[in-house]
Amino acid sequence: MSSSTPPSSHSNEHGASKEFIVLMAFIISLVALSIDAMLPALPDIGRDLGVNEPNRNQLIVSILMLGMAVGQMIYGPLSDSIGRKPAIHLGYGLFIIGSLLSIFATDFNIMLLGRLLQGVGVSGPRIVAVALIRDRFEGRMMAQVLSYVMSVFIIVPAMAPAVGQAILLFTEWQGIFVLLLLMAIAALVWLQLRQPETLTPERRKPFSLRNILRAIREVCYTPVALGFTLVTGIVQGAFLAYLNTAQQLFQVEYGLGEHFPAVFAALALAIGLASVANARLVVRFGMQKIATYALMAVSVISLICFVVSAMMGGLPPLSVLMGFLLPLLFCVGLLFGNLNALAMGPLGHIAGVGAAVVGCLSTLVSVPIGIVIGQAFNGTVLPLIGGFALLGVLALIVVLIIRSKLGEIH
């Protein structure tokens, strides 16, 4: 791919080069690594930065998500205005600053500031990479390229804790941030040298805060969009609580130690397999039906697991817990894509900025939920599983209200 011959918009006729697909996957994979590679290092980071309460270490994950919520509202419209590559450059610049702050942090608050900047920064390449793909391809070719790229999300979250654990075998936790820093620099250089700009000057739009505010207003005043954005946030909140507490639960309470990444990988693959299965199921059953039944399953599985766990003192045998968590997280995997698509359904005329608003608002709902449940961790599975049960029922109620008021949405 030569930088002297930029592809025209929607260049389906030549297909996607392997280099392009790998570059886009590399860019997007930094999101999952930034979240999950940290998990084995949370107690070490907290110890070195003077954190006395282990639950506070969870903020290293939650604050990154908060930064991503803020960032994704900005980068879509910004990339429409200044071009895809400059927007990605800006995101990586912030991510690199955040990584350096985290590497050299001697205070927990500085670490959290670094993670916030990492979140704001990494959301740029993540959002704009999808727009860049959309610039180059359309129709089935775009769907094919996106499926190749997004398949990374099945593999990387499963591998990320193992990567973090491997680094800890040879060096301190700062090594994980060094890896993230080097990956960001490599992606930045690779993008600059090998990927042409895909948004030509005549197709750019002025950056407009008014358009963002108008999109926020439209989402808030469109019942389907607002309802499913809220449900997305509720489900993401339960999942964030799982991410927040996974290290303490498996590595400490179940004593898995260095074997924690293997259990995390199995659970991550359950989510990934659900995404693959959903591609076929959604054609047959429709998004809302799948979402409704998946939420029913989440609620029932969580309630049964809560009762069983409570009867076993809050820490059932690991095999019993995995027997509940694998199907539970499979159902969560079915929800992610369908709920987002349902929220976006009425927003086709403002798809770009609409996606940014839905993503931002749902994350702003999920982060406080994830923090509250995570901070309630007490050495048992009860706060986490109870949170899944309560949130599953709440999300199901919202979906059933939408369905009763507006009918079936396909």
TrEMBL record:
Gene3D superfamilies: Multidrug resistance protein D. The chain crosses the membrane at residues 20-39, 59-78, 90-110, 145-167, 173-193, 219-242, 262-283, 290-312, 318-339, 351-374, 380-402. Keywords: Membrane, Transmembrane, Transmembrane helix, Transport. It is found in: Membrane. Pfam families: MFS_1 (PF07690). Residues 20-410 form the Major facilitator superfamily (MFS) profile domain. InterPro entries: MFS, MFS_dom, MFS_trans_sf. CDD domains: MFS_MdfA_MDR_like. It comes from the Bacteria. The keyword Coiled coil does not apply. It is a multi-pass membrane protein. The keyword Ion transport does not apply. Its main location: membrane. PROSITE patterns: MFS. This is MFS transporter. It comes from Pokkaliibacter plantistimulans.
